[in-house]
Design brief:
This protein is α+β, with helices and mostly antiparallel strands. It folds into 2 domains: about 140 residues, no CATH class; about 220 residues, Glutamine Phosphoribosylpyrophosphate, subunit 1, domain 1, CATH 3.60.20. It is built from 14 helices and 15 strands. It has a 6-stranded antiparallel beta sheet. A 3-stranded mixed beta sheet has the order 11-12-13, with helices on one face. Strands 1-2 form a two-stranded antiparallel ribbon. β3 and β4 form a beta hairpin. α4 crosses α5, α7 packs across α8 and α7 crosses α11. The chain is globular and about 60 Å long. The N and C termini lie far apart (about 45 Å).
């Protein structure tokens, strides 16, 4: 699929439908009140984050990106205004989803699409309630979105890893090796099996996953492979005193997405369509009324009594379930606090041209990227077990920005990621 500048890589937008569906079922405040802080920031201005200040140069040549390029030398803290976004949020507050999809945004999208979309695409509510997927690992039930999400990989890899006796100390290279091999076995056929409408429960079949666990050599990296020819995602987690929790992930896919912008409202369009296949007959083949496979992997955790135990989420493209697997193991097995589990050095598998094609070679030929502040023993220990490794800088932006909330008997404990250099965990 075209990566940038092509409207065909922009599936019909559905984010606002998702907001409204979530609010209608679980919201406790008026929608207008929920949206007002964001609308006011967009209208009156907000300080540029460090990440945004470093990245706006990539859209400097796009005329509809003028809201973001008002400064010749952008720095964190400089004020930006998004009047078109403010108008859009105001319309949603007053008139709901139709005011957005059939209003200024929708009209601009149809014009920009030049035939890629039909009016009925925007008239149809594009959000569904789906039964969650569940798997058990380390004495807890793990829950995530069904396909077309890759969230099943977090559950499958945790189920596989839970069949091993992990070392007590995460600094032991064997800890990293067993988690890496569990992820590789879980995800090696992702390209073939992940598509809109895939049977998520079949992807978590315990006998199938047990067979994959049996293929893992505790002393050596498996030889995998086959014949298969930087994300801009936010994850936020929240929990309340009533036992409710939310893991919410939104994404432009890569950076500023498709680099196509709806005129007037100046809303950037995602390029989530890069998850489609152009192979004729492939179950994830590009086509109308289809959703592409995607990387967003929200995660909720419940205990043996069925009560909420935690929520977690991260950005990171194909690395999302890899990061969540490591958080789960540190939190549930090693007993680390959310803050320590989130801040600890990570590994991530890479091998494609970008962070969205890791599994093209079916888990073969991958490099284990090791974060600079990860345990020193990992690099040599993984190499002796047959892994190809590469050491990066500490607290690298490419290892995701994760969040974890632990629901304890008498309090909530949360950790937010230090890697983005800004952000906070808050409670009251």
């Amino acid at each position: 699929m075209p990566f940038r500048g092509d409207i065909r890589s922009v599936p019909v937008p559905g984010c606002v439908d998702g907001w409204i569906a979530l609010h209608e079922r679980f919201g406790s405040l008026e929608l207008a009140r929920v949206l007002e802080p964001a609308r006011a920031y967009a209208e009156r201005g907000f300080p540029m984050s460090p990440t945004l200040a470093l990245s706006v140069h990539g859209v400097a040549s796009l005329p509809e990106a003028a809201d973001l390029t008002v400064y010749e030398h952008p720095r964190a803290g400089m004020m930006l205004r998004r009047p078109g976004v403010a108008r859009a949020l105001g319309e949603i507050a007053r008139g709901g989803r139709d005011a957005f999809y059939l209003g200024e945004f929708g009209e601009g999208l149809l014009t920009l699409g030049d035939g890629e979309y039909e009016a009925r695409d925007l008239e149809t509510i594009n959000a569904d309630w789906m039964p969650a997927l569940r798997a058990t690992a380390w004495g807890h039930d793990l829950w995530t979105m069904p396909p077309n999400s890759q969230g099943y990989l977090s559950l499958a890899s945790a189920f596989i890893a839970a069949g091993f006796d992990l070392p007590e100390d995460p600094a032991d290279p064997q800890w990293a090796h067993l988690l890496i091999e569990s992820m590789r076995q879980a995800a090696k056929d992702r390209v073939e099996v992940l598509f809109d409408g895939a049977d998520g429960n079949a992807l978590l079949d315990s006998s199938m996953l047990a067979a994959r666990r049996a293929q893992i050599d505790p002393t050596r990296a498996a030889t995998l492979g086959g014949s298969f020819h930087n994300g801009d995602t936010i994850a936020l987690c929240t929990a309340d005193s009533y036992g409710n929790g939310v893991s919410l992930i939104q994404s432009n896919a890569s950076g500023f997405g498709s680099l196509l912008i709806v005129p007037g409202v100046r809303i950037f369009l995602q390029n989530r369509g890069i998850g489609f296949s152009l192979e004729p007959g492939h179950p994830a083949e590009y086509g109308p009324r289809r959703r592409p496979p995607h990387t967003l992997s929200p995660l909720a955790i419940t205990g043996a009594d069925g009560a909420l135990r935690g929520v977690a989420g991260t950005m990171g493209g194909d690395a999302q379930p890899q990061i969540l697997l490591q958080l789960l193991a540190r939190w549930l097995v090693a007993g680390e606090t959310p803050g320590n589990a989130v801040a600890a050095g990570r590994w991530a598998l890479s091998g494609g041209r970008n962070g969205f094609d890791t599994w093209g070679p079916r888990g073969g030929g991958l490099t284990v990227e090791i974060e600079g502040h990860a345990p020193e023993q990992w690099a040599d220990g993984l190499r002796t077990r047959g892994h190809q490794t590469h050491l990066t800088e500490p607290f690298s932006h490419s290892f995701g920005h994760a969040h974890l909330i632990s629901v304890e008997p008498d309090h909530l404990a949360g950790g937010t990621d230090p890697r983005p250099r800004f952000g906070a965990a808050a409670g009251w």
